[in-house]
Amino acid sequence: MNISAIEEFDELQNQMNEFSAHFEVALTQKRSNIINDKQSHYVKVNEIKNQETQLQSEIDGLRQKEEKIKNTIKKTMEDLQFQKLKVEELASKQDNLIDEKAKLQAGLDELHKSIHETNIRLTMSQSSLAEQVRRDYPELQKYERYLGLKIEVVGQDSLKFVFNNVDPADLDKEVWCELLVGGEQFQLGQTSPTLAPDIVHIVEGEFNQHKEFVKFLKTIRTLLIDALQ
């Protein structure tokens, strides 16, 4: 069957119209896809930017936390160092206190030893004095009767010798002296009347050398009476 040129043209026209319509649909779809892709791209870009901003914020927060932790660690180390120095200082003070305590204890022990030795010397001195008095007791009785001697205990380690009958013009007149017996050697205390220091020194030296009680009483009585003149 032969087709005329007009029919061929119409057929071609129909095909062109169909192709044009199909192309228009395809182009519209393509443009729609491109627009959708652009919108999706913008949305994704915004999401990425938001995520980036959020991540940057989190990074900044982590950096701040890291810096805070570093500062905390630094301060903790400084505190530990300070506490270490404080502990060392306290330990040093404790050692010094222990040394000081040991020195004080040694001094106390030495003091106790000295007191003990002094007590021994005092006991020996008192025993010696008691023995001397016992030996000289008959002579002392004579002194008490004829020379008006009176012996008084005025302290734990002190005796007082009072002499009357020393002035015919004044029967109530008295002279006296104190004798300290608590030390290693006898010492004169107060006297009435007062004796010169050099005389006291001589009397003490002689008495500690001979340790004769009666001889001492004779000497001191004479010196006290002479001092009344």
TrEMBL record:
GO cellular component term, pick one: Ndc80 complex
Gene3D superfamilies the UniProt entry points to: Chromosome segregation protein Spc25
Domain Chromosome segregation protein Spc25 C-terminal residues, every copy: 154-224
GO terms under biological process: cell division; chromosome segregation
Organism: Pichia sorbitophila (strain ATCC MYA-4447 / BCRC 22081 / CBS 7064 / NBRC 10061 / NRRL Y-12695) (Hybrid yeast)
Protein purpose: Acts as a component of the essential kinetochore-associated NDC80 complex, which is required for chromosome segregation and spindle checkpoint activity.
Main location group: nucleus
Compartment annotation: Nucleus; Chromosome, Centromere, Kinetochore
Gene designation: Piso0_001707
Keyword Nuclease: no
Record bears the keyword Transport: no
Protein's name according to its UniProt entry: Kinetochore protein SPC25
Coiled coil: 45-107
